[in-house]
Amino acid sequence: MSGWGDSGAGQLPSAGGVAARRAGRADVADLVGVLVRAFEDDPVSTYLFPRRHVRRRGLRRFFRIQLRRLFVDTGEIWTTSDRLGAALWVPPGATHPASWRDLVVLAPVLADLVAGGRPAASLRLLAEVERVRPSEPHWYLATLGTDPPAQGHGVGSALLEAVLATVDEQHLPAYLESSKEANISFYTRHGFEVTGEIRSDDGGVTLWPMWRRAGSART
Ligand SMILES: CC(C)(COP(=O)(O)OP(=O)(O)OC[C@H]1O[C@@H](n2cnc3c(N)ncnc32)[C@H](O)[C@@H]1OP(=O)(O)O)[C@@H](O)C(=O)NCCC(=O)NCCS
């Protein structure tokens, strides 16, 4: 099994010619910027942080903490040579970075939510996301984002495929929550299937949990 923090892999070629590689601490600052730009207009971001300037600040803080404190030493972060995108995976058996115990680490983001977002709705949505998450061992795609100017050129697919190759070797399932209905066809092409819907209690936002069965063929 490829372990947390194992940086042994070099560049992996993909079908579209984009090479994926493991990211490390030196990549973090650039990847925070990439993810902020990728998620600035995301439906969950705009729901949790309705005001744009607070959203930018909240996202920047969230991704900085997610990368630096929750993933860089112990996670699977993948990018490309030009740092055009980032994929953050939690392998099976690892501590889940979105679990309640990480709320302490994420406290600065809660402060942003209190200042200009929807703190109560965020916590309720997080609780629902945790409730729905499968208990069976699986690889979890916590975050995937491509810098907007680079989207549609195979970066997201290359980042996904780099880890799905390991997932398939291990004959394990994988899981994610899509925050955009428009992304469902993209993930379906990589073998994921929608298993339901997670709605905020006021109906303001929907997430689509997607499961990729062990041994699913990619199309
Ligand atoms: C979803 C996301 C990660 C996809 O990344 P991407 O780099 O655009 O992904 P790809 O280029 O590999 O594939 C995207 C589409 O472009 C097409 N594509 C891939 N390579 C291509 C190329 N060389 N030329 C033209 N189109 C191409 C793919 O067929 C795919 O089409 P589909 O959406 O109909 O499946 C990206 O759109 C993103 O960051 N969005 C904002 C954040 C977000 O929504 N993240 C996911 C949260 S669940």
Look up the CATH topology.
Aminopeptidase
Radius of gyration: 16 Å
Assembly status:
single chain
- Structural category is alpha+beta
Percent in helix = 25-40%
Q: Averaging pLDDT over every residue, what do you get?
A: 86
Largest sheet: 8 strands, mixed
Descriptive account of the structure:
By secondary structure, the chain is an alpha+beta fold. It has a single domain, classed as Gcn5-related N-acetyltransferase (GNAT) (Aminopeptidase). Helix content is 38%, strand content 17%. It contains seven helices and eight strands. The chain has helices at residues 28-39, 43-48, 52-71, 107-116, 119-132, 155-169, 184-189, and strands at 20-22, 76-80, 85-90, 139-146, 174-178, 193-194, 198-199, 206-212. Strands 1, 2, 3, 4, 5, 6, 7 and 8 form an eight-stranded mixed β-sheet that branches. Helix 3 (52-71) runs antiparallel to helix 4. The longest helix is centred in the N-terminal third of the chain and has 20 residues, at 52-71. Mean pLDDT is 86; it is low at 1-9. The structure holds coenzyme A (COA). The site of coenzyme A has 22 residues, from helix 1, strand 4, helix 6 and helix 7.
